[in-house]
Specification:
Layout lengths: L6 E8 L3 H12 L8 H11 L2 E11 L5 E9 L3 H6 L1 H18 L3 E4 L6 H4 L1 H6 L3 E3 L2 H18 L8 E7 L2 H12 L3 E6 L4 H9 L6 E5 L2 H7 L2 E4 L17 E4 L17 E4 L2 E3 L17 E3 H11 L14 H14 L7 E2 L2 E2 L2 H12 L4
Parallel strand pairs: 1-3, 1-4, 4-5, 6-7, 6-9, 7-8, 9-10, 10-11
Antiparallel strand pairs: 2-3, 12-13, 14-15
Bound molecules: NADP nicotinamide-adenine-dinucleotide phosphate.
């Protein structure tokens, strides 16, 4: 197949921190501003509104032999800048979408905070002729699959743990709550503020065999739960020493919610639950933006799946993600061969020792 006939996707991202901003400025702009203080550097980038084409997937092949190509466009802003200057950042996301469209993208995915601002993808979708998605549906699917597989691997599928969901009522946390509540699990949902939405949600959720408790107290939720799904937009809110021994944290957030430390605990699993791998049928290996070989964020996986399918429709937009859409994109991604069970923790493979120490702490020393 010649390159000009390939289906194309664009993926819009931003720098993950000031160090990445500095490196991007030096690499793509050869700018002496890259040598200035973090504060000056950030002010300069915000004023300039730089967008760089940072990565090309020349050709991706799925296990169903669908083929596509894509490019990632990066806003030179940090996550905090994106959240603090939302109207400027949304305009830049729209500009980046138009760059992707000009290149020929028929599907555009919004990564990390690009998917949070602008009414969670709605404003970008309204301004583009290409289809747009936040990729959140596959992200939810991947987190649930990770939970199921890890419980099996720990031989803890019979255990009925309490599950904390942090980052409610965000798009991802809301969908996770609905899915896990329907399964009759016992949930402690952490929301940072009391809003009318919470009352409406609890009034309308219906009855299931499980239970649902809403709290603003993150610490007490972590002390009462062995399974934690976490997906806040601010990140860096969970200290490892606040986790119960035997905890499994499915950290979906980007930037991460769990704070990295050099000698991390071995008796807890901290899983990069927003990371999946390209289909094994991928012919050329890719190392995308600081991820392991062929690892990608799951929201990019949704964008690629929709492109493989030539499904040029708006997919995951806004706060409410329909459960049938989550199931649909999960099924399609599995059919195309995306890999959901090569677990990573802070970007590295999870060691067998980490699994066995966590299992011992969760189930007792004889397991
Ligand atoms: N790896 C991937 O592929 C992938 C894909 C999609 C999303 N993500 C990441 O997942 C995260 C959530 O995405 P989303 O679309 O669900 O975002 P969202 O709809 O904006 O939800 C984020 C939620 O986090 C809450 N929150 C923010 N700071 C908090 C804090 N300090 N403590 C407790 N709650 C806090 C917000 O509360 P308020 O409602 O009070 O503002 C909001 O409800 C983001 O980090 C995003 O980058 C990763």
């Amino acid at each position: 197949m010649t390159a000009c006939h390939l289906s194309k996707f664009g993926f819009i991202v931003h720098c993950r921190n000031a160090t990445e901003l500095r490196l991007a400025l030096l690499r793509y702009r050869f700018s002496p501003w890259g040598l200035f203080s973090d504060q000056k550097l950030k002010e300069y980038c915000l004023k300039k509104g730089f967008i760089e084409n940072i990565f090309t997937f020349k050709e991706l092949t799925s296990e169903r032999q669908a083929v596509c190509q894509g490019k990632a466009f990066c806003l030179l802003l940090t996550p905090e800048q994106m959240l603090e200057n939302q109207s400027i950042a949304t305009e830049l996301v729209i500009k980046a979408c138009k760059m992707a469209e000009d290149w020929g993208a028929q599907m555009i995915g919004l990564g990390a905070i690009c998917a949070v601002i602008g009414a969670r993808g709605v404003e970008a979708a309204q301004s583009c002729s290409a289809a747009v998605t936040t990729g959140n549906a596959l992200t939810v699917y991947a987190a649930v699959v990770a939970f199921e597989k890890i419980m099996q691997r720990l031989e803890a599928d019979q255990v009925e743990p309490k599950i904390a969901i942090v980052g409610f009522p965000g798009s991802i946390a809301l969908a996770l709550t609905k899915i896990l509540y329907e399964r009759g699990l016992h949930l402690i949902v952490v929301s940072r503020r009391q809003t009318a939405f919470l009352k409406k949600f609890t009034d309308n959720i219906g009855t299931a065999a499980g239970s649902l408790e809403i709290t603003q107290d993150l610490h007490s939720a972590l002390q009462a739960s062995h399974i934690i799904f976490t997906a806040t937009s601010t990140g860096q809110i969970i200290e490892q020493n606040t986790l119960l021994p035997g905890s499994v944290v499915l950290d979906i957030a980007q930037p991460k919610d769990v704070i990295y430390c050099e000698n991390g605990r071995k008796d807890v699993l901290i899983i990069d639950a927003g990371t999946i791998a390209l289909p094994r049928s991928t012919k050329q290996p890719y190392r995308y933006s600081g991820f392991g070989l062929n690892d990608i964020p799951s929201c990019l996986g949704e964008t690629i799946t929709l492109t493989f399918e030539k499904k040029w429709e708006q997919f995951s937009l806004g706060r409410n993600l329909p459960v049938d859409k989550i199931e649909e994109i999960g099924r399609l991604s599995e059919q195309h061969g995306f890999v959901f069970d090569e677990f990573r923790s802070f970007g590295k493979p999870v060691s067998p020792e980490n699994f066995s120490e966590t299992k011992k702490a969760l189930l007792g020393p004889h397991n």
